[in-house]
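Record now logged for everyone:
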Amino acid sequence: MPSVYFPSDKGLLSATGRYAESAEYAIRFGAIVTGELFVENKDRGRILRKHGPLAVDMETAAAAHVCYVNGVPFLSVRTVTDTGGDSGPEAFERNCERTSEIAAEVVKGLLRAWTRA
């Protein structure tokens, strides 16, 4: 691989930008840091300083890698179920259903914009 980063597909990014102009939900663009461990509070500051991500997760790089290997356009859509101030299994359970609904709506909207390009 030429880089440790998996860039998003330019066409999908462009479509998402078009969709974001009229989307019901705020859509932010930026980096996601992916790791293989849950991020402990003591590590959050270091990760933020070093990478400046919008989010940290455990899944995105694996999906991006599969897309990269197979030549499939890639874009990650993430909704946040827990934050540094509201973290843990309780926050995840409390927010999971709603964030999943939002993610589905965003994906449908960006795919509509992508197929119209």
Summary: The helical segments are 10-20, 41-51, 60-70, 89-115. The chain has a mean pLDDT of 84.
